[in-house]
Design goal:
Helices cover 68% and strands 0% of the residues. It contains 52 helices and no strands. The radius of gyration is 50 Å and the shape is flat. It comes from Apteryx mantelli. It is found in: Chromosome; Nucleus.
């Protein structure tokens, strides 16, 4: 093959080939016009078939012209050119292994194939870039929402650039995997060629759609091509610069490069690539990065995802990144902290870490803990999330538990909602994964802790005493030394004719040492010294007889004897020891090891209990903070708080019950997410009880629900009722639970009195969702709950009445419905039992009779036909008993037909409780009579009227249709309009009728109420005579109830009512009258309006209960617009500084609701706080 007279040099820019680069360099001779490219392309194809890849040497200009006019060339020509070039490169790639393996390759052939390789690769990569740019600009792949262009294009030509990219990249990869250095005479492949091959890869990665799942194969092909360039062509430096540059400018490439670098490090062993990239990022100036928000986001995502995939490799290069933790941009801090957390989770985890790894782990944990208090809320939030993962994976050392929990509790007060939310999640994770106990009650832990601490102290004292009593060999030697020294000095003097014991040395130094030690323990000092002297001469240089040859002989002997006695104790026998006692050293070995082990175990136990107690204290502290967050404005924080208390409840923390109760009112939230969170919380806490059988699970559920109702307020009961009714409507409460409740109520199942009450209450709650639960067992309720034993437990009877009342509490039917209200006949056994129970208990002193009576009277008016007759009978029976008691007290006999009006004469001689019962009964009947007329009677009149009007309309419509069918539509419209006017007028007529009954009939001399009004007024007007607090409070409340009947009566007695409210010394009277005044303000607003200052005055009452009652009443009146918002509302603002927390919460809730009601809040504040200087009590209360 003849070598061409030129050499092809890869241009820096396409235009460089149009200009002659000098002698011996190839230059394009002619750029063909776009319309004429088809024929040269066909000629190139023919030449390729004839000569193979070498054909490009003569036809390069044709393909270059196509690249030059790429936008103007037709799609078919471009596609043919791409297909042809792929064939050419593939052919050359297949031929190159044989060519490169030919040892006799001439210089001319080598140069020719090198030019062919460069030309073909230049043209093919040029087409790749051209197609890629065209795709990005035209939106052929992703930007056309309809997809019509793509579909039509594919349908016409069958060409899809997306499908062509992957095989093309694999072809280039195959080419790079060859040993192309032989074409460069065995030298390094020129950098321009490597950049040419990899440039197309980077161009493809710049396409934003490359990250989609459908392009996964293309990404993998690009990754392997770049790996070939890195492994075989020293592309690392260029790749590092290019990747960091793309990360800075193309946000979407960060996950792609993270996956690619991970692959290079694991499959190709290119771990140094990770270090180069991280070092390049780490050397970026933090101030410059702070100004480049887009670029820093790419770096952050890259670091985060790379750490997730190859944490060990990233860990080895982490030091170059830590400087950015002091930078301004929070994204980079978050990324590095995430990388630190991944290292802790996947590398620095476990108990068998080396000392260096443990130090790195502690350093990283210190970094994370420090950034919990980062200046950026996003960083604080992210660190809390990372700690949550670490805790969930059990990667946090126990020594760090207390410090991290303390930091998390501190973040509960953070100003950022997201931080607070994540702090709650972290604390929940700590609870779920705590290593201490399934029970974290401080009360349960403090006693065992004290007990074990005391035991540890005793063990330590005992150990000290044992250690003090034990004589060590050194101490024994010191005691023996004076005598041994004296014997030594005596023996070293010249002999005075005494015959000494002849002792010979043993064969070895060890056996001789044992013999000398035995002689010392037998107190044979002379023998030991003589033997030592001989041994020093016989075993010179051997231990322990390696003493100096010259010097003080006495010191040498004593030194040898000391070392033998204190440091060597083998070979002694018990029988050789005087008295049969063993050495103290032997005792230490046998007796001290076990106590020492027990002491260590005890110290570990105490430390465990101490850590558990400290953890419990912090969780308890967190409970009080989280419970206050349940009423935050942020829905997510409220949901996390609810979830937290569900988690805490599983660990028997006593305060958790308070949180579970506190979340109850949230069931009324207008936010669906919060309401559903409460329902799910109670569903998890109570509807999934433990137990082997259905019966056991039912018992567990009933027991849990009953605990909530212990000492629960009325509001708590109502909230729980809403939740249980929701569960019943969705059939989430099993029939076995309802069956068990009935068994407890009827005492078929053994239970306490409190459990019976709870069973009735739960049945009533369930009946709200399904009234048939009570309706089908009404006779059982009456027979068992309202039997002759009702006087023994009025509270049970009261709950029975509440349960039965659910039959009347069904949602009101829509206007126009024909269904009659649910009523029971007057002769039903329920009303007989109620009448008997009320009358029978009237004359008995019981504090529970009045609440039962109120519920019973209410139930009669709700369910009974002719309820007023039943209650009149009860009033007559009770007043008759009062008359009999009065006659007994006065020693007189009453006439059989005595009038009840005589009760007011000499009433002071009646027992106080009897008078209070009578007054309370009168007030309740009066109030329920008004409610019965205003609601039940009015609704029934409206229903009957509408039925009549509907029947008349139907008859009129039928008659009109028969007479004039064509004009029926117009007649019906006119008729409906007339009926509408008639209906509106009728409503007014019915309301006026009921109003006249209340005003003129209920309190006239013919009605029963008139007989008791003088008695009520007498008690109210004579507080000195009737000084009993309960009686005075009952009379005051009854006065307010009677005032509800008639506006005339109300107007004439308002002065008495407000005078009592202001002057009474009894807080119960003032509270009752405040409630009554609130009701009167709604019923007769015009009458009460002049007395508004007296209502506000109760907000400054010295009694806490009165202030709280007044706050509740005024809140309702103001929010319902029954009292206008004026300057006097500043009295409500004064409650914000009340010493009682409950009153402060009430005032805060009032202003929160008021701010939602009045959007012009700033102008309202002016009127609210302007009178502050005029409130003298404000300084004192503050």
């Amino acid at each position: 093959m003849s070598s061409p007279p030129w050499e092809f040099h890869l241009p820096l820019a396409p235009g460089d080939l149009l200009r002659g680069g000098g002698p011996g360099r190839y230059a394009v001779q002619e750029v063909l016009p776009a319309p004429e490219l088809a024929a040269p392309l066909a000629a190139f194809r023919a030449a390729f078939r004839a000569r193979g890849a070498l054909a490009v040497l003569q036809h390069f200009d044709s393909l270059y012209s196509l690249l030059h006019h790429f936008r103007a060339v037709g799609a078919a020509v471009k596609e043919d050119a791409l297909e042809l070039m792929m064939q050419v490169v593939s052919c050359h790639s297949n031929d190159l292994p044989a060519i490169l393996g030919d040892s006799g390759l001439s210089h001319a052939d080598r140069t020719a194939h090198l030019n062919v390789l460069k030309m073909n690769c230049y043209l093919l990569t040029g087409l790749v870039e051209a197609f890629e740019m065209e795709t990005c600009k035209s939106g052929l792949v992703e930007l056309d929402p309809s997809g019509k262009n793509k579909k039509n294009h594919t349908k016409v030509s069958g060409f899809s650039w997306e499908e062509e990219r992957e095989p093309l990249i694999r072809l280039l990869t195959q080419l790079l995997q060859l040993d192309l250095r032989r074409l460069w005479s065995g030298l390094v492949v020129e950098e321009e060629f490597v950049s040419l091959m990899t440039g197309s890869c980077y161009r493809i990665l710049e396409n934003p759609s490359i990250g989609l799942q459908k392009h996964r194969a293309t990404r993998e092909a690009v990754t392997h091509l770049l790996a070939a360039a890195l492994v075989h062509y020293d592309h690392m430096f260029s790749a590092t610069l290019k990747i960091t540059q793309m990360l800075q400018h193309f946000e979407h490439v960060a996950p792609v490069f993270a996956q690619a670098v991970s692959l290079w490090a694991t499959e190709y062993g290119l771990k140094s690539m990770v270090g180069e990239l991280l070092r390049e990022i780490g050397q970026k100036c933090p101030q410059d990065l702070a100004r480049d928000a887009a670029g820093i986001k790419g770096y952050a995502v890259f670091i985060t995802e790379l750490a997730e995939q190859i944490p060990a490799v990233v860990l080895s290069n982490m030091s170059v990144l830590l400087r950015h933790l002091d930078g301004e941009n929070y994204l980079m801090r978050n990324a590095i902290l995430a990388a630190v957390a991944e290292a802790l989770l996947k590398v620095l985890n476990g108990d068998k870490l080396e000392e260096a790894a443990r130090g790195t782990r502690d350093q990283f944990l210190d970094i994370l803990q420090a950034h919990i208090c980062d200046i950026s809320g996003f960083v604080r939030s992210r660190v809390l999330q990372l700690f949550t993962r670490i805790v969930q994976c059990k990667a946090l050392p126990l020594t760090r538990f207390q410090s991290v929990v303390s930091l998390a509790v501190g973040r509960l007060k953070d100003k950022s909602v997201v931080v607070v939310k994540n702090a709650i999640q972290l604390l929940a994770a700590f609870l779920s994964n705590n290593p201490f106990s399934c029970k974290l009650s401080c009360a349960d832990l403090v006693e065992p802790l004290k007990k074990e601490v005391q035991k540890l102290q005793e063990m330590r004292n005992q150990h000290r005493a044992t250690a003090a009593a034990t004589i060590t060999p050194e101490e024994e030697w010191e005691a023996m030394l004076p005598e041994i020294r004296a014997v030594t000095q005596q023996l070293l003097q010249p002999l005075q004719g005494e015959e000494e014991e002849v002792l010979e040395v043993e064969e070895t130094a060890e056996s001789t040492s044992e013999r000398i030690t035995g002689l010392l323990r037998k107190l044979n000092y002379k023998g030991a010294i003589h033997l030592t002297q001989k041994a020093l001469c016989h075993f010179q240089g051997l231990e322990p007889f390696s003493g100096p040859k010259e010097g003080n002989e006495e010191a040498t002997i004593l030194d040898v004897l000391k070392r033998l006695y204190t440091g060597l104790c083998p070979g002694e026998n018990t029988e050789d020891t005087p008295g049969g006692s063993s050495s103290p050293m032997t005792k230490d070995v046998t007796l001290e090891e076990q106590p020492q082990t027990d002491l260590v175990k005890q110290e570990m136990l105490v430390q465990y209990l101490q850590d558990a107690y400290n953890f419990s204290v912090k969780i308890t502290e967190a409970l009080s903070l989280v419970s206050k967050m349940m009423y935050e404005n942020s829905v997510s924080v409220v949901q996390e708080a609810i979830e937290f208390f569900v988690t805490v409840s599983q660990f028997s923390v006593p305060q958790a019950v308070l949180g579970v109760r506190r979340m109850l009112p949230l069931v009324w939230s207008k936010e669906p997410g919060i309401k559903e969170a409460v329902l799910n919380a109670y569903r998890r806490l109570y509807l999934s009880p433990s137990g082997d059988s259905e019966r056991a699970r039912a018992q567990s559920l009933v027991r849990s629900l009953s605990l909530i109702m212990v000492d629960a307020s009325l509001g708590t009961i109502q909230c729980l009722e809403e939740i249980i009714s929701e569960f019943v409507q969705k059939d989430e409460i099993k029939p076995a639970v309802i069956q068990l409740l009935w068994e407890q109520f009827t005492e078929k199942s053994q239970c306490s009195l409190l459990e019976r009450r709870a069973a009735v209450m739960l049945l009533g709650m369930m009946a709200r969702g399904k009234p048939e639960i009570i309706g089908s067992n009404l006779d059982v309720l009456v027979t068992v709950g309202l039997s002759e034993k009702v006087c023994e437990d009025y509270r049970l009877a009261q709950e029975v009445c509440n349960a039965i009342s659910k039959l009347a509490n069904n949602p009101k039917p829509a206007l126009g419905k024909k269904n009659a209200p649910f009523r029971l006949p007057q002769t039903h056994m329920l009303f007989g039992s109620l009448s008997e129970a009320v009358s029978k208990g009237f004359a008995q002193p019981s504090g529970d009779w009045v609440p039962f009576m109120e519920v019973a009277v209410t139930l009669i008016y709700q369910l009974a036909e002719a309820a007023e007759e039943i209650c009149a009978h009860i009033l007559q029976a009770c007043s008759q008993q009062a008359l009999e008691k009065l006659q007994e007290a006065d020693g007189q006999k009453a006439e059989p037909g005595a009038s009840p009006s005589r009760v007011s004469d000499g009433a002071s001689s009646l027992p106080t409780f009897l008078l209070m019962h009578l007054v309370s009964l009168v007030g309740q009947v009066a109030l329920q009579q008004v409610v019965y007329l205003e609601e039940s009677v009015s609704t029934e009149l409206r229903r009957r009227r509408m039925l009549r009007e509907e029947q008349k309309a139907k008859q009129h419509s039928e008659g009109s249709t028969k007479k004039q069918r064509p004009q029926s539509t117009g007649n019906e419209t006119t008729m409906e309009e007339e009926l509408g006017l008639v209906g509106a007028s009728a409503d007014d007529t019915e309301a006026e009728l009921i109003r006249s009954i209340c005003e003129t009939e209920l309190l006239d001399g013919k009605h029963l109420f008139s007989a008791f009004v003088p008695l009520v007024l007498k008690i109210c007007n004579n507080p000195g005579l009737y000084s009993d607090p309960a009686l005075s409070a009952a009379a005051a409340l009854t006065l307010g109830k009677v005032c509800m009947i008639s506006s005339e009566f109300c107007d004439s007695h308002l002065r008495l009512l407000f005078t009592m409210m202001e002057k009474s010394t009894l807080p119960g009277v003032r509270s009752n009258l405040m409630v009554a005044a609130g009701d009167l303000a709604i019923r007769f607003p015009n009458l009460v309006e002049p007395w508004t200052p007296h209502l506000y005055a109760r907000l400054r009452d010295p009694c806490q209960n009165v202030r709280q009652t007044a706050g509740l009443v005024m809140t309702h009146l103001i929010l319902k617009d029954m009292v206008k918002v004026k300057g006097q509302v500043s009295e409500m603002a004064a409650l914000l500084m009340d010493p009682e927390e409950a009153i402060v919460g009430l005032a805060q809730n009032f202003f929160s609701e008021l701010s939602n009601k009045y959007k012009l809040w700033n102008s309202f504040l002016h009127f609210t706080f302007r009178p502050y200087s005029c409130v003298p009590q404000l300084k004192g209360s503050g």
